[in-house]
Amino acid sequence: MNDERIDFSPIDPTKDEARFEETISSIVRDAEVELERRQGRLTVVGQVGQWWWPLLAAATVIIVVSLGVLWQLGGNGSAVLTENGIEESLGVPSQVATWIRSDELPTTSDLLETIEVSQ
Amino acid sequence: MRQSSTSVTDASLVEQARSGSTPAFEELVRRHFRAAYAVALAILGNQMDAEDVCHDGFLKALERLDDCRNPDKFAAWLLQIVRNRARNYRAYRKVRDAVPLEFTVAVAKSDSARDVDQSELRRLLQDALGKLTDVQREVVLLHDMEGWKHREIAQALGISEVAARQHLFVARRQLRESLGPQVAKEYLP
């Protein structure tokens, strides 16, 4: 087998040293943000920060959902909740809500009656 | 894979770069730029595009450094990233330009006789390389330009050492034929 190398120096990117150094510097410069992020991960503040952002995002979601529910309940939501329970507040028929609370299984006739009433 | 003259291993540099060490990352770039460039050039056939893809490839590799499960084989992992990006870029370029791809190497502007010779040789090499397959180009560039061993090339390309040798043999023969005896005698060893 022919073991003589082809001379690729005319297209060797490292041959022009100044240009090569410029290329390396450019890559390293653009990597600084990511490198700094990685350095920050090591500090205590960084570790807390790693947990803080997902925690903050989760808390935001919970707050938004809670506000949505409160908005649905309207201004007298708390009073409604106290008197009738959350099932009725969310539009569940009162008979069904009673079954849910009492663990009592409804009979077929009860179910039919409830459906007729709700219609 | 290939290490520079220093005794620091790739694995150690990867570990330091994971912690945000700029010198470690820079050393990884220096150490593997030419190999990454060889892979990108083999696929894209254009010096400027190859350099751009290498640039992006190193940044992407840094972002995903935690995914490099075997830091000892950082080079093979990096080259796979560069290869994928080069292929994506080639596909994008095909759609964008809607013209057949040609193997073109940027020719620097110059007025000296020596540089004109270099430009001419670059053009001859570009034409000759353009007649090879992607794999043949990658093998011959990694072996003859970057100095990788067949074992390293086989590992990086996911082929057998025998296949790597065969690709090199065919690539060299075709390059010599394409360049012609005069050029081969004048420029090639």
Query: What top-tier CATH class of the largest domain in chain B fits best?
Result: Mainly Alpha
Write down the overall geometry of chain B. globular
Anisotropy-based shape of chain A: elongated
**Cα distance, first to last residue of chain B?**
26 Å
N/C terminus separation of chain A: 90 Å
- The CATH topology label of the largest domain in chain B is Rna Polymerase Sigma Factor, Chain: A
Taking the sheet with the most strands of chain A, its summary is:
none
- Summarize the largest interface: chains and residue counts: A-B, 30 and 42 residues
Low-confidence region ranges of chain A: none
User: What is the count of structural domains of chain A?
Assistant: 2
Structural class of chain A: mainly alpha
> How is the quaternary structure best described?
heterodimer
Helix-strand pattern of chain B? HHHHHHHH
Overview of the molecule:
The complex is a heterodimer of chains A (119) and B (189). By secondary structure, chain A is an all-alpha fold. Chain A has helices spanning 17-42, 44-73, 77-89, 94-102, 108-118. In chain A, helix 1 packs across helix 2. Chain A is elongated and about 95 Å long. The mean pLDDT of chain A is 78. In chain B, helix 2 packs across helix 4. Chain B has two domains: 1-101, Rna Polymerase Sigma Factor, Chain: A, CATH 1.10.1740; 107-189, Orthogonal Bundle (Arc Repressor Mutant, subunit A). Chain B is mainly α and 189 residues long. Chains A and B meet through helix 1 of A and helix 2, helix 3, helix 5, helix 6 and helix 8 of B.
Q: Which structural traits does this protein have?
A:
heterodimer; A: 2 domains; elongated; B: mainly alpha; Rna Polymerase Sigma Factor, Chain: A; Arc Repressor Mutant, subunit A; 8 helices; about 0% strand
List the helices and strands and how they pair.
The complex is a heterodimer of chains A (119) and B (189).
Chain A: H1 17-42, H2 44-73, H3 77-89, H4 94-102, H5 108-118
Helix pairs in contact in A: 1-2
Chain B: H1 10-18, H2 22-44, H3 47-63, H4 74-97, H5 113-130, H6 134-145, H7 150-157, H8 161-187
Helix pairs in contact in B: 1-2, 2-3, 2-4, 2-6, 3-4, 4-7, 5-8, 6-8, 7-8
